[in-house]
Each structure stands twice: as C-alpha cells, then as structure tokens.
Design a protein that fits this description.
The chain contains three helices and no strands. Helix content is 54%, strand content 0%. The longest helix is centred in the middle third of the chain and has 28 residues. The chain starts with 18 loop residues before the first helix and ends with a helix. The chain has a domain of 58 residues. It is mainly alpha-helical.
Length: 93
Amino acid sequence: MAQGVSKLKSKGGISRVTKKRQNPKAAAPKVIKAKKTPAKSAQTFTKVHQSQLISSTEKLIASRVGHLELIKGSRRQIERQEKEKAKKKASSS
C-alpha cells in the first residue's frame, strides 16, 4: 500500500472558459463613434485631412530622398500597367 497523501493529477489544459477566451474581440480597444451630426461631420473632416496630410508628407520625404519610390495605385493596377506596356512594346516591334 502506498503511504502518504496521494496527489491529485490536474486534468491539463484550460479547465474553465472565461469571457476573454470565449471572445477575444471584446478585449480589443473600443472605437467610440460620434452620435450627433456636427460631431460626425467633424470626425469625417479630420479623417480626410489626416489622409491628405499623410500623402503630402510621403511626397515630401520622397522628394528629399531620391532613391525612395512612391507607389501609385494598388499592386494589381501596377501589374496591369506593366502588362499593357509589354503588349505595346511587343506590338510595335
């Protein structure tokens, strides 16, 4: 016979599902949106100006640093333009 206190083995893994484990999106930072009309328009106004400010800053940095390249359009648009250029070269020669 074994002497001493018998140790209970843990079942392993997660024994209880908490709210955070159940829905990790709830742990994400909350986005507070404006409800009143003037506040909504101000929010969209700042969003537009922020994007314009970012684009102008990128252009400024690219102009100062010559080897940086500004990419215009998405990857698919750029690939489409390259294909059109290749077709024009093939058809012209």
